[in-house]
Amino acid sequence: MIPTILCALGLSYAGMASLSLAMDRHHGQVWGRDAAPRMRRALQLAGSVLLALAVWPCVAGWSASVGVVAWIGFVSCGALLVALLLPYAPRLMFRSSLLAAVAALAGLVTLLR
After folding, report:
1. Which of 30, 73, 93, 110 is deepest in the core (most CB within 10 A)?
2. How would you write the chain as a 3-class SS string?
3. What does the pLDDT profile of the chain (113 residues) look like in tens digits?
């Protein structure tokens, strides 16, 4: 149960961080410049894929109906983490979201077994 929660939360946090960095304002907070169009598209795609992957451990850990509701909660928690970290520590948010994505994807692989 705990690996399922951590995996879903990590994927949701990384997905929301990626979607926020796809916006020029937040990209500028982290890197000091606007995002290039290709970078913006790549970040949007990565964020969408990570959020879509976050459904998987929720549905695997609970039933489909409860899993979707739990997924919505995890996406909300991920968005809250991004909203709290971005104004005060934007580079920390970027680094921690990369770490969360790698850890959550590794956890997703272990959940497959």
Report:
1. 93
2. CHHHHHHHHHHHHHHHHHHHHCCHHHHHHHHCCCCCHHHHHHHHHHHHHHHHHCHHHHHHHCCHHHHHHHHHHHHHHHHHHHHHHCCCCHHHHHHHHHHHHHHHHHHHHHHHC
3. 788 999 999 999 999 999 999 999 999 999 989 889 999 999 999 999 999 999 999 999 999 999 999 999 999 999 999 999 999 999 999 999 999 999 999 998 888 77
Q: Are 112 and 92 in contact (CB under 8 A)?
A: no
- Nearest-angstrom CA–CA distance, 5 and 2: 5
Q: Say whether pTM exceeds 0.85.
A: yes
